[in-house]
Fold this sequence. Notes:
The protein has helices at residues 13-24, 36-45, 91-99, 117-124, 172-181, 193-214, 218-223, 225-244, 257-264, 268-281, 293-299, 310-320, 325-338, 347-350, and strands at residues 5-9, 28-33, 47-51, 58-60, 63-66, 79-84, 102-111, 129-134, 139-143, 146-149, 161-164, 187-190. The chain is α/β, with parallel strands linked by helices. It has an eight-stranded mixed beta sheet, with helices on both faces. A four-stranded mixed beta sheet has the order 4-3-10-9. The longest helix has 22 residues, at 193-214. The protein starts with a strand and ends in a 5-residue tail after the last helix.
Amino acid sequence: MDKPRIAIVGAGAVGGYAGAYMAQAGHDVTFIDPWPEHVEAMRAKGLTVAHLKDVPEFTVPVRAIHITELQSFAKERPVDIAFVCMKSYDTAWATTMIAQYLSPGGYVVSLQNCINEETIAGIVGWGRVLGAIASLITVELTGPGLVKRAAGKSGASHTVYRVGEPHGRISPRAAFVTSLLALSDSALTTTNLWGERWSKLVANVMGNGIAAATGLVAKEATADDAIRAFSARLGSEAIRVGQALGYDLEEILHLDAEVIARAGEGDAEARAAYDAQRLADTQKPGGGAHRASMGQDMVKGRRTEIEFLNGFVVAKGKEVGIEARANAALTEIVKRVERGEAKPSPDLIRGLRLN
């Protein structure tokens, strides 16, 4: 039996990283990306992956095409697995673009930061959707054809990838996708996709917008007492909204979700535990030396995903009667910076006065 044909739609940090390992293992992978220089670099020199420590740099020859060339797929074998790795605001058009080239049994895997499965299902149907979370992966596309990870492999110390079906049952295809992602680091197949998704959302809510608003790398933001406290407030609101929606939350940033929630609500014991863990994480090799993805977007002048992270918490909070004031404030700050009305600064967070 032929190996499945795999398409990586969006060969940025996460898509490029995971896909490079699939290609290195001999899988039939095509990278599709909108950045011309990146595509040309992959064609000419291959895709290079580098780690901060422990893992030797490698370059793998890959097939890469511009999105404008995708119509050539009409003359080729259909795609069996399409990993959509685009920003959330590009999910709908990217899914529509690749959907017409799926095989009859083909399906789409959302390997993205935010919760986009419903958008994808609206295009291909729920039976052709899987979700995959990349947790604390700290990767960045630093230049054309080059992905860097600000860490080594997590391995047994932390499960990076979690793959699940929307219906929550373990399926052969979910297990196979897990095996593909496990080529690059630790992975598991989960029966709790929605809880995993919301837990990852909370982690992103606590760090991404802060990086965009302040210009700080994760380690610097965590070391700042006021910003670290505000991060707990953001997480607390998101956790309470997720619980109200009925999600079974997983560990978040190496902490029990309830500890973060109570820390953000002013519980002294929980705050002490939260501070200790967050500060300890920065002392690990490479701990927090990276810039969160939304911070990378701001530096590069790209649109951020703030509406799909902190703004999403605000919207869902309204549905369940929970006011997410901190998340609303951060959403507005990031939009102001994005529009050029303010410059990234820690003072944008320190100056907030929220009861």
